[in-house]
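Anyone have tokens for Amino acid permease/ SLC12A domain-containing protein? Sequence:
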Amino acid sequence: MSHTDKIEQVGLARVLGPAHVWALGVGIVLVGEYMGWNFAVGKGGAYAALLACWFAGILYTCVAMIDSEVTSTVAAAGGQYTQAKHIVGPLMAFNVGLYLVFAYTMLEAANAITVGFLVDTVATISGHQGGIDQRPFIILAIMFLAWLNYRGVLATLTFNLVITAIAFTAIIVLFLSTSGILGTGALRHADLLSGQASLPYGWLGVLAAMHFGLWFFLGIEGTTQAAEEVRSPARALPFGTLAGVMTLAIAATLSWYVCAGLMPWEYLGQSGVPLFDAGRLSGSTTLMVFLGIGTLFATLASANGCINDASRAWFAMGRDRYLPGWFGAVHPKYHTPYRAIIFLVPIALIFALGAPLDQVVTFSILSGLLEYTFMPLNIILFRRKWPLHSIKRGYEHPFHPVPAYVLLGLCGITYFAVFLGYGTQLVAMIVFYIVVSLWFHFWRYRFVNRGAQFTMPWPKPQGY
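Reply: yep, here.
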């Protein structure tokens, strides 16, 4: 037996609990409350961004319910990729795996860009003339978090749990301090959101805002990537995912409320770090520093979780030979998919150092959107092939098939919203995924171990 074969027989460690799942999901997404969501304000105004936030909340609640049922039953690394492999088929699984990897890797790059921008902003405030070179901080952030992921999942997500909790607390403190609950109210909604400023582009602006409205919640579905490393998938995955969506809905609404009451929509719509700007405008140096720390922690937590999730999807595809089997190795000491972690680092660095933030954000959103479009088909086929009485589920989501149809409809609306502003990028990405699908079908599929694809101990599907 070769050394590589021995490594590949080492499994991932089941060491995580519900709090780690919450930290993974919320940690990835909370940066969306610190930056990125406000581009929706630029698309349609402050009220349009709020409506987009709530519509996106409905979309992600459907995603969370569907994911919780399927993942607590298909408890393996790869998340939606592994679900597609068992329920739909190989070609869909390959595409979903790529959607996951690109969504998380692009989000990681966006976070690194934000870290660099934040350091530059702080340096400018401190009196440093001409700003500073952001690139070393971008590289340092990605390399440090990749090293942390390499060393073990328990330490990685415990770190996420701590810094995510601090970043969430900063949002709560900002709200309490500026709304008048703990001091003098500094918010001016009546002045900033009156007249034409309420909906400057009408209802078309609300539709356009759906593009960046997803940024409030994008990545919560990443909790599924921990399925093979939690101690109790049936309990930890549904609890961590659904609690995460509720946490993010609160944080998103409070972030909008504070920022819309402190900044004109024209400025808010193009701010690089809106919550940090809100801390600066509050008039409190302590609050400004706390929000600066919160912004830094939120971006690090998100990038950290993205490395975790992208590497698990890439690792699972390598283990199944959808990609070269070399990527399916687990570190013999740290029990992490170390080759997948290392391989994705330069890809994240290329985009973080060479692409504008809005383009990177859109790349991540579109990849996530393609993944969400697959989910309704996935749950409908899952319920049809294996009805509730046929296999034991860790969680059964209610109101089926209503969430699936609602999710599909909201995805369709968001595609149109993205097309309004980034039509060329949307078409280019769809063409890219079509080309790689053809490559997989005509070349790569011959290397897939077809006999090992179905690994769950389930009965034959209904009708087969």
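The chain has one domain: 3-448.
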